[in-house]
Amino acid sequence: MAQVIIYEQNSQVAICTPTGEIPIDEVLAKDCPQGAIIVDDSVLPQGSDAQFFDAWELVNGAITVNFSKAQQQKLNQYNAAALQLTQIRQLNTLAGINNQVTDTDFFSQLTIGRESIANATTTQQLVLIPLLDNSKI
Amino acid sequence: MPVPYTFATASTTIPLSQLDANFQTPITIGQTNANLGQVVTTIFGLTLTNVNITSGNVTISNITVTNVTTGNAVITGGTISNTTLTNVAITSLSTPLPNNLLANSSVTIGNTSVALGSTIGNIGNLALSYANIQSVSTTFPNNFLSNSSVVLGNTTVALGSSALSVGNLTLTNLTIFSLASTLPNNFLSNSSVTLGNTVVALGGTAANIGNITFANITVQSGNVAAAIPTTTIGNTVVIFGGTIANIGNVTFANATIQSGNVASAIPTTTIGNTVVIFGGTVSALGNIALNNVTVNSVSTAITAAQGGTGLVTLPANNVLVGNGTGSVVSIAPGSINNVLTSNGTAWISAAAGALAGNVTYGNTTVNLGSSSSSIGNLTLNNVTIASGNATLTNLNSPTGVLASQNGMVGIAKAWVNYNAVTKTVNNSFNISSVTYSSTGNYILNFITPMPNAYYAAAGMAWDNINAIRVVGYNATPTTTTCGIICALPNTYAGFDSNNMTVIILGS
Q1: A103 and A120 in a common domain
Q2: What is the pTM of this model?
Q3: Looking at residue A48, what DSSP letter applies?
Q4: A39 & A90 share domain
Q5: Interface pTM, i.e. ipTM
Q6: Which residues in chain A are contacts of B489 at CB distance < 8 A?
Q7: How far apart are CA B163 and CA B159, in angstroms?
Q8: Is B432 left (phi over 0), alpha (psi -120 to 50) or beta?
Q9: A90 touches chain B (CB under 8 A)
Q10: Distance from A48 to chain B by nearest Cα, in Å?
Q11: Is the minimum CB–CB distance between A14 and chain B shorter than 8 Å?
């Protein structure tokens, strides 16, 4: 069982993973602030919860996942990917290159994704919602 | 009507029949005139002496007896009721008055009314003068005694309190079991004790004390010459203050003679196993061990057989070599760069010849004068190659400057491969830990700090969600940490990758 060091920083959980090159006690003293604690890595959220690090909260020494924050993190990622594709689509239009997907279909897909995020109730559902990829250009 | 009979001159008995009912001549009894044949209820001024009523009952009601002076008045039986006795002196009672007679009576003692025949718990305001209390059932409590006082000697002492001093008090046959403090001299000055058979006034001076035995006495100062003019040491009587020429039959143990000599008193002694005459000369002492002895000079050199060198002086800077029982021999340094060389039988100082033969470095035997392509298992510390090139084909040092690689230019000073999703590190060098501060934002903590913050960092990221990632600094690098961000291009939104690699290069 590996061990990690956890503490709260800027109202968010910080995880310090020792590489094993030096003892964890030295890592705790050297790399972490006062109040950091050593725990087994089994206490870290697993599976789909592990995908939403910004939603992790440290409550009484235990890490929990705030689902509302997880939704917001997924939405931010979704929007960032959509923005990236939108910029490519605009550049294609300026360059006279035809996009593979019409604007109507693109925004329809974008809306469906956002609604799926809003309607999700578990992190498993959030993970299964795909970000828009190059096939939507 | 004439009196037919004259009582005053009657010479015979006058019959009662002749005293008829009409005989109205009154007579006076006491101070009361009584007509004969009449009933008189009250007679005043009548004194009855030695009246003896032998039969019948006499009831006397509301009788007042005043100043009965006649003795031996006896009332036997009967009841005297509603009778007031005034100024009756009861000189004695043949039997005590019974309790039931006294039960309804009371007396006042102090200011307390006490019912006779009953028990009284307290009597207030009672002054007892010259009381002789022969015993009490319990001791008087202090609060009872606290308002009382007694006079000890000429001092009034309040009972229940403390008296610091009691004056003019003589205590006889007093036994003092303990004292809170020692008695002061002025208290003892008028007292005396008996030491031996001599009475000694305390606080005074006793010239002589007879018949006293001292045991284990220590005289800390002064002298006892006058008091004990002589004593016996050994079998010799010694006069204190005098001089004694000889003391016979004395055994001294651990005696220290600090000055003077004992030559005449103790003519000989034994040192080791040799008898030494005090004041004489001893040429040899046998079987003697001397410790920490300083020999200032010797008349002849101590030979090798005697444990010496056989030399009076040792030649400067020479090497000394043993010579059997003879004196040690010396070898001078000779010329510069000479070395001590053996010719097979002796050592000489000679010029160093060409090196030849084998020496072993690490676990490699090297033939001197030849070359060795490799030396195994050799640890060199602080090695400086002043010129030429050192070629290292397989550098693997677990510790030291080579391990941190800070001593070498052009190679990675740190690197790491980690999974930001599972927060695990796959492999690393000179990285103590990876801190995940938020999605896509990491801090790499160095074990050996970088020589300066102007190092180069390069990173790559990959995941199976979206392949396009950028990796860069998210904070100003320091010598101990390097902040890394993994983000989507254009938006720079942080994104955790499951395969992050970062390499740090620098001077």
Answers
A1: yes
A2: 0.41
A3: G
A4: no
A5: 0.82
A6: 84
A7: 9
A8: alpha
A9: no
A10: 10
A11: yes
